Amino acid sequence: MSETAVLSIDRLNKHFGGIVAVKDLSFEVQAGEILGLMGPNGAGKTTLLNMIAGTYSPSSGRVNFCGRDITGLPAHKLCHLGIARTYQIPQPFTSLSARQNILVATKYGGKKAAGMEHDKIFDLVNLSEQKDMLARDLATVSLKRLELARALASNPTLLLLDEVAAGSTDAELPRILGIIEEIRKMGKTVVLVEHVMKVMVEAVDRIIVIDKGEKIAEGTPGEVMKDEKVIAAYFG
Ligand SMILES: Nc1ncnc2c1ncn2[C@@H]1O[C@H](COP(=O)(O)OP(=O)(O)O)[C@@H](O)[C@H]1O
Ligand SMILES: [Mg+2]
Predict the structure, then answer these.
(1) What local confidence, expressed as pLDDT, does residue 117 receive?
(2) Distance CA 31, CA 21 (A)
(3) Is 95 in the pocket of ligand 1 (CB under 6 A)?
(4) What does R_g of the chain's alpha carbons equal in angstroms?
(5) pLDDT at 23 over 70
(6) Do the strands 158-162 and 83-85 form a parallel or antiparallel pair, or are they unpaired?
(7) pLDDT averaged over the chain?
(8) pLDDT of 236 strictly over 80
């Protein structure tokens, strides 16, 4: 493992009964890097994030975070250590306001979270006007932004983003790209799962493509887009 790796995945596997969702997957993410994770539906992207964030334990393999073996630790411990994730399907506390949701996330993040100002986070994700609305009354796009705000509120070192741009209109993409750029400036390390190509091409440093749980390509956005295995996985 290199010394600057924030995240190091070593031969990770996840089985659900007979289904192999993630297979012998290994890769590293360096400090401050934004890594894009691509793959067709069912490729195992969310399962991988779930194993990094402690929602699922791996069937085998290791996960290292900042030089520490975190394999199988529960989500709340990982949040304290500095890993936060968004859910593909937003999971707010529906009967709490957006502001209260963020407060909960800050509490969950422990002492280190105190550094993040809530108003700045709401500004960044463009939710300032809606912060006193109940989560259940927010539109889907706003809920996606609340997911991001919640993840940021725990002041993570490593941020795992699961399809934050999905469902956005073209007009909303510059805002999302701007948010990711701000997150980069904060020095955070990011793993970004996204189908929206524009986000991949413009926001990430490197892409890993998985298909049926296995890594099939790795490189710059330009490199992976013309990789024959990638084209076959998406269109074959
Ligand atoms: N909790 C689960 N129980 C059983 N099968 C699951 C579970 N979560 C994911 N899977 C299966 O694992 C595979 C990968 O799913 P997922 O990680 O959600 O893919 P992606 O996010 O790339 O679309 C799929 O075949 C899916 O049905
Ligand atoms: Mg998914």
Answers:
(1) 86
(2) 27
(3) no
(4) 17
(5) yes
(6) parallel
(7) 92
(8) no
The CA 20 to ligand 1 mean position distance, Å, reads 9
Closest CA to 3 of 63, 73, 64, 85: 64
89 Cβ inside 6 Å of ligand 1: no
Place of tokens 């749980």: 213
Cα 42 to ligand 2 centroid, rounded to whole Å: 7
CATH architecture of the region 1-82+159-236? 3-Layer(aba) Sandwich (3.40)
pTM for the predicted model, two decimal places: 0.94
Angstrom CA distances, 69 to 30, 34, 152, 222, stand at: 16, 21, 23, 33
Which residues of the chain are in CATH 3.40.50.300 domains? 1-82+159-236
Which of the four pLDDT bands, split at 50, 70 and 90, describes residue 210?
very high
In a 13 Å sphere around the CA of 29, the CA atoms on its Cβ side amount to 28
